[in-house]
TrEMBL record:
Highest taxon in the source lineage: Bacteria
Xref: HAMAP family: UPF0235
Name of the protein in its database record: UPF0235 protein FX988_02173
Similarity section: Belongs to the UPF0235 family.
GO cellular component, one term: cytoplasm
Transmembrane segments: none
């Protein structure tokens, strides 16, 4: 069972390792026991967190209000919940089926 990516009560729960200031936004794959996501925003004044939530909302086809950062505001390791995702990105879908 992959603990980095889980579905709980119609919510997608992700344990993320974030790489800020990347050249492009992308879901990289597994990094230890977390899902690595690279984003272009710098880790300044919460910009990386805001950008991460916006990126995940777009990838999952939901409003930004459906994405919540529940752990790791000031850390590279984060826990994010996406409520009722309309779409599950292929990289995440592959991990759900493990």
């Amino acid at each position: 069972m992959n603990y980095a990516v889980q579905m709980k009560n119609k919510a997608l729960q992700l344990r993320i390792y974030i790489q800020p200031k990347a050249s492009r936004d992308e879901i990289v794959g597994m990094h230890g026991d977390a899902l690595k996501i690279a984003i272009t925003a710098p880790p300044v004044d919460g910009k990386a967190n805001t950008h991460l939530c916006k990126y995940l909302a777009k990838q999952c086809g939901v409003a930004k209000s459906n994405v919540a950062l529940i752990k790791g505001q000031l850390n590279r390791h984060k826990t994010v919940v996406v409520n009722e995702p309309a779409v599950i990105p292929k990289a995440i879908q592959a991990l759900l089926n493990v």
